[in-house]
Amino acid sequence: MKTKAAVLHAPHKPFEIEELELDGPREGEVLIKYTAAGLCHSDLHLIDNDLVPRFPIVGGHEGAGIIEDVGPGVTKVKPGDHVVCSFIPNCGTCRYCATGRSNLCDMGATILDGHMADGSFRFHRGGTDYGAMCILGTFSERATISQHSLVKVDDWLPLETAVLVGCGVPTGWATANYAGGVRAGDTVVVYGIGGIGINAVQGAAHAGALNIVAVDPVEFKRETALKLGATHAFASADEAMAKIAELTWGQMADQALITVGTVDEDVVTQAFNAVGKGGTVVITGLANPEKLTVHVSGGVMTLFEKTIKGTLFGSANPQYDIVRILRLYQAGAIKLDELVTRRYTLEEVNEGYQDLRDGKNIRGVIMHSAD
């Protein structure tokens, strides 16, 4: 069958809309008709060459849609089911899944190559194989993906909202609750109030943090943070540092959560200095893996028992936490609708990413046609 998709052919080039050939599902795979796709910063990392995929690649790793067909051996879903995609597959049997760390599943090894575990591709054009970002390619009207990349959700949930819990929302929420271990009464500082940072704010509020300090140069984002749980918001790290010292009588923050779009040495150092004794710095944002971005005093780390840790997906469990967060949304305990600043068509994907760069959106969502 044919499908329309937004494709990257090289770094520093915009997405191109193309018609591709799509193979049907094989063993353990499903055909999904995407309803919505999230515009997440990780796809910008492909354009900016901070993450290097195999080109050409169909973009998009946040997706929600309806199952149209299933291949042999599929047991998790059936045609007609509503699903949210997990940008990290979870097989359930590898070392990491078996020890409760399914966010580190070995099936994620090919998410930048965009092919199935056996090395085969499902998108093609003119004899060329096209990869799929995170083996999903949600910037396509349809895709053939593994059943291990799906989470079934309730049919009554709006998919254009549920799409956000495939990556950004649980990553931010869990950065606070799991990776950061925020507790009631803690003081938390969040650097970068985008699609992940705003949900780190919501996660810290859910955990009962006493002080939640948001840091972002964009006024609109600071205002949004204050509406969704932050107690204070500042344009600069220096302003935030002074307020944290005042709020804690010099004890400083318990957790510093780094959720900026591209991590650099400056923000890591600022976060390290913002936490007090026994404090934890969590690095959730990405940077080019070849760049060394953590340069701090080992002596201070030892004497003050500070911790710096990285986290993928906030150290959450996709199969459990995607559903859990949707339950919290239904109960009014976490905001999702309020996160979406604007919706776009597939043809407007480059405009959507320019709006993200310009700080105009907390979240942008692509709405696929109903055909």
UniProtKB/TrEMBL annotation:
UniProt entry tagged with the keyword Ubl conjugation: no
Signal peptide: none
Cofactor requirement: Zn(2+)
UniProt-recorded name of the protein: NDMA-dependent alcohol dehydrogenase
NCBIfam families assigned: Rxyl_3153
The keyword NAD is assigned to this record: yes
GO MF terms held by the record: S-(hydroxymethyl)glutathione dehydrogenase [NAD(P)+] activity; zinc ion binding
Enzyme class, spelled out: oxidoreductase
Domain Enoyl reductase (ER) intervals: 10-366
EC number(s) reported in the record: 1.1.99.36
Keywords tagged on the record: Metal-binding, NAD, Oxidoreductase, Zinc
UniProt-listed GO biological process terms: formaldehyde catabolic process
Family to which the UniProt record says this protein belongs: Belongs to the zinc-containing alcohol dehydrogenase family.
Species this chain originates from: Amycolatopsis acidicola
Annotated Gene Ontology cellular component terms: cytosol
